[in-house]
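subagent[fold] <- orchestrator: predict structure for attached chain, return tokens only, no commentary.
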Amino acid sequence: MAYTADKPTPPPSADELRARIPGWGADLDPADRPSFPKEQPQDLNAHWSFPEEQPEPAAGRERSIEHGRLTPVFGTAQPLHGVSGAIRRYAYARFSEARAAHWLLLLAADRVDATGAHVRSLGSRHPDNPLTETGVVAERRWSPLDGRRGRVDARHQWLDPLIVAGPWILGAAGVVAVSRRLLRRR
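subagent[fold] -> orchestrator:
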């Protein structure tokens, strides 16, 4: 049973491990391990064998395919929504956490969510201001060269303006292109 103090299968014996894995047991002597006192079992006076489970939300909750069930307690503050939520659900349902595809899909979902937030911002009364929110104005004002000296990524500093301003410039160019097409059709 998951999430209990009882282990479902006994671990292999030291002799079985020594026969199967070359060099196994080299650190068995407690004097050779500085973390040995911390490894001692402690009496935590646990009074339950399995905690009361939190009710699962109607929309469901993502969980790794490595686990047979959800943990007894889980967060519900940020429920999945929209296209980014669908991408995240697919990543959890299809790929193991050990696969790069799982994490790349989660990164893509974050980018989709951020893009949606930018688009919603443009439609609001107070859109994002990329000049002040990215620190470009502050960098120019507070000695920009001192902040760039000694950086590990000095070879990549020329990319900073492209990474910060590039998406905004491409987005503005897209809006201008779409607007021109719409005006020409009229």
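orchestrator: received. Logging for downstream: The chain has a mean pLDDT of 80. Residues 81-142 form one domain.
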